[in-house]
Amino acid sequence: MRPCHMAMLAASAVIASACSHTEPKPVVRIVRAQVTLPESARLACPHPIALPDRDMTSGEVTVKWGADRAALLTCETRRAAAVAAVDAAGEDR
């Protein structure tokens, strides 16, 4: 009976060790990249083109003047947002 007892004990040890196997914890590495903004992005957008030195039709005013001002506003909004985002990223460190 002794050999059977030893075999049962050995089998129990193998089963128990198989159940208690633990996976190693994953290694997490966080790397922050240096954020740089090109100097050209810090420059203000160009001024709108000069309006002609004559009376303009209402169609000219609506199309040229309105599109010019809208483009300037869009450019300045994007430029300011880019600068603010990069500057804020630098403050988080």
Would you give an account of this structure?
The chain is mainly alpha-helical and 93 residues long. It has a domain at 38-93. The protein is 60% helix and 0% strand. The protein is built from three helices and no strands. The protein has helices at 2-19, 39-42, 58-91. The radius of gyration is 35 Å and the shape is rod-shaped. 0% of the residues are buried. The model has no long low-confidence stretch (mean pLDDT 77).
Which properties best describe this structure?
93 residues, mainly alpha, 60% helix, 0% strand, rod-shaped
Low-confidence region ranges: none
Secondary-structure content class = mainly alpha
What is the count of DSSP helices, taking H or I runs of 4+ residues? 3
Tally of strands: 0
Strand content: under 5%
Cα end-to-end separation: 70 Å
Work out the helicity level: 55-70%
Biggest sheet, open or closed, and with what strands and sense?
A: none
Rg computed from alpha carbons, rounded to a whole number of angstroms:
35 Å
In short:
The protein has 93 residues and is mainly α.
How are the elements arranged and paired?
Blueprint: H1 2-19, H2 39-42, H3 58-91
